[in-house]
Design brief:
- 57% of the residues lie in helices and 10% in strands.
- The chain has twelve helices and three strands.
- The chain has a three-stranded antiparallel sheet.
- A hairpin with a 2-residue loop joins strand 2 (193-200) and strand 3.
- The longest helix has 22 residues, at 43-64.
- The chain is globular.
- The termini are far apart.
- 31% of the residues are buried.
Length: 233
């Protein structure tokens, strides 16, 4: 068993039942290699934590922004609870250092799959806090480590999808609406890969890749938002 006192110190929560915290960190792959491990994997706890997270975020937004519409609040909530935000939050509390993973998963440190595992583990952690100490404690954790990201989300319009954000920014700075063009396709029909460029006028700003045209366009827009040659950043 791991020493989880450091994690408790980071999140400011001392568990009454430390096994709940431990179970929240057990990925299914670990049990495949350690079938005699005394705890189950964290997927049921993740299911619970997802519901607790959504309620806590919804309640916060509903109470704080009483003049905002349902549509606006829904977009903001989606940005706060999406996997990317959860994975960033998990990394900020060093959750990666405490996960129980198979040897293969442990080596795969920078992949999309690892970030997905981190996002799920954060939801499981929220579920563990709820089971151990109730909704108020879970809500406090969410407020301390997740809701603090809302200002940045609103200031930088991160609640919009990448294509909408890039269009907004390009119209504001360059006065041009971006357009997308398929540059190449590869692979069989059941496993296509698309390379798509995003252009301002005749200028190619960035190229994205994906398993669908939509995914490739979003990738291109995301890269364009980080481009330094046209936005002065």
């Amino acid at each position: 068993m791991k020493d989880l006192s450091k994690l408790e110190a980071i999140i400011g929560c001392t568990f009454k039942n430390i096994k709940l915290l431990e179970q929240s960190l057990v990925h299914r792959s670990y049990l495949n290699e350690h079938p005699d491990f005394p705890l189950k994997h964290n997927e049921r706890m993740e299911f619970l934590g997802d519901a607790v997270l959504e309620l806590a975020v919804t309640r916060y937004l509903f109470q704080k922004f009483q003049e905002k519409s349902e549509g606006e609040l829904t977009n903001w909530r989606a940005s706060l609870v999406k996997s990317e935000t959860l994975a960033d939050t998990a990394e900020s509390i060093d959750l990666n250092d405490f996960l129980y993973l198979s040897r293969g998963e442990a080596k795969d440190t920078n992949s999309k799959a690892r970030r997905y595992i981190l996002a799920n583990a954060l939801e499981a952690l929220i579920g563990a806090i709820y089971l151990d100490q109730g909704f108020e404690a879970a809500e406090k954790f969410i407020g301390s480590f997740l809701l603090t990201k809302l200002d940045d989300i609103l200031q930088n319009h991160l609640y919009l999808d990448p294509k909408s954000r890039f269009q907004e920014k390009s119209q504001e700075i360059a006065g041009i609406t971006p357009h997308y063009k398929v540059l190449s396709e590869s692979g069989p029909d059941h496993a296509k890969r698309f390379n798509i460029g995003v252009f301002l006028g005749d200028d190619e700003i960035a190229v994205g890749e994906g398993a669908s045209k939509q995914e490739a366009e979003e990738s291109a827009a995301q890269r364009a938002l980080k481009a330094k040659d046209w936005n002065g950043t």
